[in-house]
Design a protein that fits this description.
Elements (H helix, E strand, L loop, with lengths): L1 E4 L5 E4 L9 H8 L3 E5 L5 E5 L11 H7 L4 H10 L21 E4 L6
Antiparallel strand pairs: 1-2, 1-5, 3-4, 4-5
């Protein structure tokens, strides 16, 4: 069983169409395009749209946290606590790296 996480903060549990594992066409339909696979903080697999940011899909906060990406506030706090760290990037805005669009989170063995 997988969990679809939507950018608006809602989610929905889904089962693979064949009852066993999610296949490529099904994954592409869920994320709306080419897929990318990443591991989550809790050991599951996240399937996302490989071109989500290029397509300007909305930020998915649930997925971003689950993927372990730090917020600008978290990065700023880390830099204040550890002045020896050199950060290359821009923290003046609202964004650090993030997950864009609708994603599927499932166990590793549920994707084929």
């Amino acid at each position: 069983m997988g969990l679809i996480l939507y950018p608006d903060g809602t989610s929905k549990q889904v089962s693979p169409a064949n009852g066993d594992n999610f296949r490529l066409p099904e994954l592409q339909a869920i994320v709306g395009g080419h897929i990318e696979l990443i591991n989550t903080r809790d050991g599951r697999l996240m399937v996302l749209n490989d071109e989500g940011k290029l397509l300007d899909l909305p930020r998915n906060e649930q997925a971003t946290v689950l993927a372990g990406f730090a917020s600008p506030a978290e990065v700023t706090k880390l830099l204040l606590e550890h002045p020896d760290i050199i950060y290359i990037g821009d923290l003046s805005g609202e964004e650090t790296d993030y997950i864009a669009g609708t994603v599927l989170v499932c166990n590793q063995d549920e994707v084929q």
